[in-house]
Amino acid sequence: xxxxYAEADLRRALAEVGIxxxxxxxxxxxxxxxxxxxxxxPGAIPERIHGVIRDVLGKEGTLTVxxxxxxxxxxxxxxxxxxxxxxxxxxxxxxYVASLPESVRTYCPLAAVAGxxxxxAEICHQPTGSAYGVGSAWQKLLEHDAxxxxxxxxPHDAFTFVMLIQFQFGVPYLYNKLYDVPxxxxxxxxxxxxxxxxxxxxxxxxxxxxxxxxxxxxxAAGLLRRATVGRGRLASFPSARAVFEEGVRLLSEDLYGFLxxxxxxxxxxxxxxxxxxxxxxxxQRFVTR
Length: 289
Description:
The protein has 289 residues and is an alpha/beta fold. 29% of the residues lie in helices and 19% in strands. The radius of gyration is 21 Å and the shape is globular.
């Protein structure tokens, strides 16, 4: 018995999780987990899946995908919104969508998003280099109440949206880092400061993320829908706004709700670096005698 899936199976799954014409969908994917696509060579699968999804969404619908370029931060490699590849860990489908002629991609390479459709520029091409701040793609996905979908990958393994929740809530284990590596768009330099919320790397703090509890909480609240596709699953949260609100509730109950355990912060060291001393005006603070 073949475990291949066909276009009809994907259409059925999209309908079962509530995705349809005119929707805005942000899709994480790991296509290998689904098995073979009936009648398609492996290299052609992203195109076939894209065709099905775009047909389901119609001309009124918008599709966005993760499109990060982490060599920017890890290796100091300049980023080009049109030319830099999507990280392999984010899947062949993200690379396919980001490479489409009509696709647009965020200026911030960290947690970058690419998209096609009528809302793509509004979401993915705002004049900001912020990963999660005002005008960022993740903030726009929240504002437009996107479907957050996961094809062949478990939500808790690819839940980038929770970074927006943590950043906006103001958790103490993240800070907003500034980068000075150039950003380009099709070979032309873009003059924008690039910033991203990142965790403190001090190994003593033991800051280890986990979204397992949050996924279970969302499912218990009735916010998670699932359908089978081939050997894998399609999961969807129909409302980014509802996910955000549930994440805020979790952090209100437990400031470290997105971590495996509370960080082992050291008193006197950032972010618990103690009192700042009495107020001294700036004009006196830097006077030397």
